[in-house]
Amino acid sequence: MKITLKVPENFNFWRTIYSHGWCALSPFEVDKDANCLKRVVELSTGKRLVIDVFQSSKDKLSIISSLNLTQRENSEVINQVRACLRLNEDYSEFYNEANKHRDFRWVAKTGAGRLLRAPTVFEDVIKMICTTNCSWALTEIMIENLCEKLGWQINDSRRLDSLSRWTFPTTEVIADVSEKYLRKEIRAGYRAPYLLELSQRIINGKLNIDSWRESTLSTEELFKEVRSIKGVGPYAAGNILKLLGRYDYLGIDSWCRKKYFEIHRNGRIASDKVIEKHYKPFGKWKGLFFWMDVTKHWYEKKFPF
DNA sequence: GCGTCCAGGTCTACC
DNA sequence: GGTAGACCTGGACGC
């Protein structure tokens, strides 16, 4: 079943897919041969399916669904894809700002800036915690384990690649397993109690993170709320905010730091305050300018994922 | 194959 | 407010 979706004029499919590492984490998957992004999708009707998303023309995306869908399910798939690819967000102000700076004119010209995200805030936050204090390889292992051991398995023999795939686990499922299981089986290590506490706070109604994407709180207040999650420090909170459409925080990690030193200081080390000062003129967009700056070479050379 | 060391953010205790 | 040490894992390295 095929669904067609119109995209904004400045939308760049591949720059959005490769905007950061999420495309390499289950249940996202990039199929370079088929030129598409795959995703295991779970619908409110209980249906679970695999979708292939690809750019069919300059202003259109096509979504191939592995199952026949009702009109309502169709709309839900479209809404999830729109949320993941940030199709509802207006980047004109960001591009206007980028065009004022010679070093960032490439951003608007190439339609960069949209950061891929999961259909739910919960998935984004769990993944972000799993990027902290470890190698990217370990992040991949943790997320793969979460999906394969706690997600719902999809076997669709009608697909050419009848591989097994898994949904991202629900909040309820993670809240229901033991800390020991998360620690040893998922390989989350000391992050296990953090994942558990987050899931249980949501289940108990003490934290409503799904409202964050439409939150009317100031970015500073929202940052404080995001920081209330154990295991989410300045790096993780800054980057979660970027996935909520707020770019006031840099979310600096060791990789970005190193990249910044290479680009702006000829390899010389400096404090985070120096980096903060550098991007201050970009105001509420500084986090996104920072990310564009340190990932520019991805677009000029080859994508890292 | 085994042991040791290091890198990677965040938390907690302490000053 | 700033700092030190602990947390846990995979990978690199030396033996």
Outline:
With 305 residues, the protein is α+β, with helices and mostly antiparallel strands. 44% of the residues lie in helices and 12% in strands.
Task: Give an overview of the whole structure.
With 305 residues, the chain is α+β, with helices and mostly antiparallel strands. 44% of the residues lie in helices and 12% in strands. It folds into three domains: 2-90, 2-Layer Sandwich (TATA-Binding Protein), CATH 3.30.310.20; 121-243, Endonuclease III, domain 1 (Orthogonal Bundle), CATH 1.10.340; 254-300, no CATH class. It is built from 14 helices and seven strands. A five-stranded antiparallel β-sheet has the order 1-5-4-3-2, covered by helices on one side. Helix 5 runs antiparallel to helix 11 and helix 10 (219-227) packs across helix 11. It starts with a strand and ends in a 5-residue tail after the last helix. The relative contact order is 0.12.
Spatial order of the strands in the main sheet? 1-5-4-3-2
Tally of contiguous helical segments: 14
Biggest sheet character: 5 strands, antiparallel
| Domain count | 3
Strand content: 5-15%
